[in-house]
TrEMBL record:
Its main location: membrane. Magnesium transporter that may mediate the influx of magnesium. It is a multi-pass membrane protein. Pfam families: MRS2-like. This is Magnesium transporter. Residues 230-297 are annotated as: Disordered. Belongs to the CorA metal ion transporter (MIT) (TC 1.A.35.5) family. The keyword Cell division does not apply. InterPro entries: MRS2-like. GO terms for molecular function: magnesium ion transmembrane transporter activity.
Length: 422
């Protein structure tokens, strides 16, 4: 029986993998969390995203850092965070990753604070910031800010850790050039290049968002949802208003006149404007709808500017991290230049020593020639023991040695004169 159970589990796992079923952590606007297993088509229906946007979150594919604003959702692929934000919930893909657990706790805490602020002060969201009131950010911006802060904080912490490891290793390398120190600096440089690339991608994505107001406007999911509901209710009220106009339209008498209709007890005292509005209530709804649309169009730019504030703040943070990494890269390059200069200097000393040794070998060869000549089996007076003795031998050896030293000094002086030696 156990074997059959394991076989069924394996079959379900293979079937889920084939259909693209993954575990998603669902964080709702009220703070509730739930792990749901959903396939690609289910997520597409729930979020309104096309399949190409979901491929951005695929952990098996290598996509750069991306923040996309769509009609009903925001797609976020920043470092270890792969999430879909809707107007009332967040879908997190890799929630089981240990590096994502702190982000989940922080996001849930932010959602709970947002819910508490919204429920305790329901009218606070409508206050005008220009009048000194505080405006509560929409749910999607709270989640987006949490994602940006988590990604920027992770990169900044990695940059700080790398900087703390790099400076002692580089200083040790300048004091002592060894294989171990060179290998340590090589690893630090590899990590520096990788982190710099990741930071650059996040910075470029934020810069792209800040340069495109339309992309930022697409991220106002709550405003678009409210606007859609308002348009739906306005359309229904317009339809009801037209039906009411038909009901309130009086019948024409035989003489061609309309009987007077009063909607209030004091109908005779009602003004002409109120009477006209009473006869055509749909005109009031249309005028209110136009006023709301104008208000929304007027405040849209202000809302975009309010979204620019957190984006610019995180852009400044990630740009500071990039500048810190650039400074560290310059320090590494300077250290490499210094090491190369030291190595070149040592190589020059070795070359000079080689020249001196080669010169010494050359002049000693002259002494060897003298020794070779005296080693030949020939008859000369110097070899006659009756004529020559120890004094002649010492003069011969001493003269040859002095001549060799003289030739060496002359050769070294000539090299220094030609600036071949220091």
């Amino acid at each position: 029986m156990r074997g059959n159970g394991n076989g069924n589990n394996d079959e379900r796992w293979v079937r889920k993998k084939a259909t693209g079923v993954r575990a998603w952590l669902l964080l709702q606007a009220n703070g509730d969390t739930e792990v749901v297993e959903a396939g690609k088509h289910t997520i597409m229906r729930r979020t309104g995203l096309p399949a190409r946007d979901l491929r951005i979150l695929d952990p098996l594919l290598s996509y750069p850092s991306t923040v996309l604003g769509r009609e009903r959702a925001i797609v976020i692929n920043l470092e270890h965070i792969k999430a879909i934000i809707i107007a009332h919930e967040v879908l997190l893909l890799n929630s089981r990753d240990p590096s994502v657990t702190p982000f989940v706790d922080e996001l849930r805490a932010r959602i709970l604070r947002h819910r508490h602020a919204t429920t305790s002060n329901p009218k606070l969201e409508m206050d005008n910031p220009e009048d000194g009131g505080m405006k509560i950010l929409p749910f999607e911006f709270v989640a987006l800010e949490a994602c940006l802060e988590a990604a920027c904080s992770v990169l900044e912490n990695e940059a700080k850790t790398l900087e703390q490891e790099a400076h002692p290793a580089l200083d040790k390398l300048t004091s002592k050039i060894s294989t171990l120190n060179l290998e340590r600096v090589r690893q630090i440089k590899s990590r520096l290049v990788a982190i710099t690339g990741r930071v650059q991608k996040v910075r470029d994505e934020l810069e792209h968002l800040l340069d495109d107001d339309e992309d930022m406007a697409e991220m106002y999911l709550t405003d678009k949802l409210v606007q859609q509901q308002f348009e739906t209710s306005s359309a229904e009220e317009d339809h009801d208003g037209d039906a009411m106009d038909n009901l309130l339209q009086p019948d024409i008498d035989e003489d061609g006149t309309h009987p007077e209709i009063s909607l209030e007890p004091g109908g005779a005292n009602t003004s002409d404007e109120d009477h006209q509005n009473a006869q055509h209530p749909s005109s009031l709804l249309r005028r209110d709808s136009r006023a709301s649309t104008t208000y929304s169009a007027t405040t849209k730019q202000l809302d975009v500017e309010e979204l620019e504030m957190p984006l610019e703040a995180y852009f400044v943070q990630i740009d500071g991290t990039l500048n810190k990494l650039s400074t560290l890269r310059e320090y590494v390059d300077d250290t490499e230049d210094y090491i190369n200069i030291m190595l070149d200097d040592k190589q020059n000393h070795l070359l000079q020593m080689g020249v001196m040794l080669t010169t010494a070998t050359l002049v000693v060869s002259a002494f060897v020639v003298v020794a070779g000549i005296f080693g030949m089996n020939i008859k000369i007076e110097l070899f006659n023991p009756d004529i020559a003795g120890m004094r002649e031998f010492l003069w011969t050896v001493g003269g040859s040695t002095a001549g060799t030293i003289f030739l060496y000094v002359v050769a070294i002086a000539w090299c220094k004169h030609k600036r071949l030696l220091e």
